[in-house]
Amino acid sequence: MTPTPRGGRRLMRTEGECLRLLRRADLARDTLLEILGDRSVRKFHAVRRALAAHPRTPRGDALALVGTLFWRDLAGLSADARVHPAIRRAADLDLHRRLPDMAVAERVDLARQVGRGALLYLRLDADPRVLASVLENRFAIEADVIQAATVEAGEREECLALIAGHPRWGLRPGVRSAILRHPALPLGVALSLLTRASLDDLRGVLESPRVSGLLKACAERVLAERGAGV
């Protein structure tokens, strides 16, 4: 039940006042519950997001609020390490549910800012514009890029060239190895990778049933130039 001041009149708060209060991790429980129970301020999505993220909001109430948020708010929850893991997971699952209805431009923005949970879905996106954002996401790790390099759906030639030319990820041996084994890798990109490929990479190309005969011949030539046996 929402507390009321003397005289029986309900205490009304503005959106700005609620947001200022909800920035405090040590906010008194009674005050938080007062905001939570006030429908007039819960109509503001910024207040609902702040309530969902607050460590003192009862877990059930926070989870119920997640489904009422916009995707940008969910992305913020997903990437905020201060938010309880259960709330972050709920935000990630809600984002996954909404992905099929999101425009490419929205997925591009989303991939740039979400946390690790949602990246597990977005790294598989078939659009190279979304992949470009995944590569720049601060939570992305090498395993995400390697997984993206194994996907066969969508505009793979452009995606593979994008990964190969990335100043950070394109230099990783594990990423390079995954790209070289992809059947859709453009020959020009493949040849540029072969010149700096390791012996294991070159032999992996020769052993892969998915690689074209022309690329295998190029790998054999590079091995021969290095004086290494097949």
What is this structure, in a nutshell?
With 230 residues, the chain is mainly alpha-helical.
Helices, strands, pairings?
Layout: H1 15-22, H2 29-36, H3 39-42, H4 45-53, H5 59-66, H6 71-79, H7 85-98, H8 104-113, H9 116-122, H10 128-136, H11 142-148, H12 156-164, H13 173-180, H14 187-194, H15 199-207, H16 213-225
What form results from the Cα inertia axes? elongated
The strand count comes to 0
* Rg, Cα atoms, Å: 25 Å
What percentage of the residues does DSSP assign to strands (E)? under 5%
Low-confidence stretches: 1-9
Give the integer mean of the pLDDT values.
89
Helix and strand composition category: mainly alpha
Order of helices and strands: HHHHHHHHHHHHHHHH
- The N- to C-terminal Cα distance equals 77 Å
> Treating each run of at least 4 consecutive H or I residues as one helix, how many helices?
16
Fraction in helix: 55-70%
Largest sheet features? none
Notes on the structure:
By secondary structure, the chain is an all-alpha fold. Among the domains are: 13-69, no CATH class; 154-230, no CATH class. Helices cover 61% and strands 0% of the residues. It has 16 helices and no strands. The longest helix is centred in the middle third of the chain and has 14 residues, at 85-98.
